[in-house]
Design brief:
alpha/beta; D-Maltodextrin-Binding Protein, domain 2; 2 domains; six-stranded mixed β-sheet; five-stranded mixed β-sheet; 18% strand; disordered N terminus
Length: 323
């Protein structure tokens, strides 16, 4: 049940200094943005999304193998919590499971922090239930009955159209309000970011609590990034989501995210580097390495790779900011 990425052993405000090998798939590349390993030194401060954090750590650990004199720290304050730090100059990169919000962009501008959003992976935001739950597929409306802000269903038998034979009490587990996953899910399911019932177990940025909570409750339900589900698939059941356009139930998977059928819970994942800092090493080398190697590292840590078109766009973006 314990996620192999070491970033998850820390709290939502924790930071890791990287200097050990990644647990993801190996990659022989030692590219570092045109600089040799001996040329790079210094420190890189990264914070933000707990969803993206394990991928960034895996990339950073592989980068650190080739560049041992670069100290990379990765925190998981949540997408919103990370932007609070990034936009006042406390970090060099923010991991994000959603795009930057207008209010966050305004704060960055006020503090003269330029940035660029770079997509580094895809994600199937996954709704999980206890394996004892007989329901296999839910619609957006049914999820809204469970997670909506007003009078949400208290038992599974209250969910219209769900299996009426299952009457367990609904036990909700979800991320905190600074989480980009919280923002994305509430927007996709309830029609407005941040709007959700307060009657749920708020796990903050510790998605492992959602795993243990749903596993331990017959009526449990939660949501988080696809990589967390993959790491705990033997203990949890992933629900299929009814595509609003086709009416077909679609399972979360790399294929359904990349072909666009897993809606509305397929989403892009990003890093936001400071574009002033990223023109200089060591961040220049790190961001270039990230984009050039992410597709070979991502599957080993449960992430969905970029399509060829998405990868080309990401590489072009890095080049355009001096990467």
């Amino acid at each position: 049940m314990i996620f192999c990425k070491s970033i998850l052993a820390i709290s939502c405000c924790g930071v890791i200094a990287l200097g050990v090998a990644a647990c993801g798939s190996s990659d022989d590349s030692t590219a570092s943005g045109g600089s040799s390993a001996s040329d790079l030194s210094g420190s890189i401060r990264i914070d933000g999304s707990s969803t993206v954090g394990p991928l960034t750590q895996a990339v950073a650990e592989k980068f650190n193998e080739a560049n041992p004199d670069v100290d990379v720290s990765v925190g998981v304050a949540g997408t919103g919590g990370g932007f609070e730090k990034f936009c006042v100059g406390e970090t060099d990169v923010n991991d994000a499971s959603r795009e930057i919000e207008p209010e966050e962009a305004k704060i960055c501008k006020q503090h003269n922090i330029p940035y660029e959003g770079i997509q580094i992976a895809n994600d199937a935001l996954t709704v999980v239930v206890n394996p004892a739950n007989p329901n296999d597929c839910l619609s957006v409306d049914q999820l809204a009955q469970i997670w909506g802000p007003d009078n949400p269903a208290s038992s599974w038998s209250d969910v219209k159209g769900a299996d009426s034979s299952f009457s367990a009490s609904i036990d909700r587990f979800g991320p905190g309000t600074t989480s980009g996953t919280f923002d994305f899910f509430t927007g996709a399911i309830n029609g407005e970011e941040g709007v959700q019932t307060k009657d749920y177990n708020n796990v903050g940025e510790n998605d492992n609590q959602t795993v243990t909570g749903v596993e331990g409750s017959e009526g449990g339900i939660g949501y988080f990034g696809y990589s967390y589900y993959k790491e705990n698939a033997t203990q949890l059941k992933a629900l299929e989501i009814k595509n609003p356009d086709t009416g077909k139930c679609v399972a979360p998977s790399p294929e359904t995210v990349q072909d666009g059928s897993y809606v509305p819970l397929g989403r892009p994942l990003f890093i936001y580097p400071n574009t002033d800092t990223v023109t200089k090493d060591p961040l220049k080398g790190f961001v270039s390495y990230y984009v050039d190697n992410v597709n070979s590292i991502a599957p080993g840590v449960g992430f969905i790779t970029l399509t060829d078109q998405q990868l080309s766009k990401a590489q072009s973006t890095v080049q355009s900011i001096g990467g």
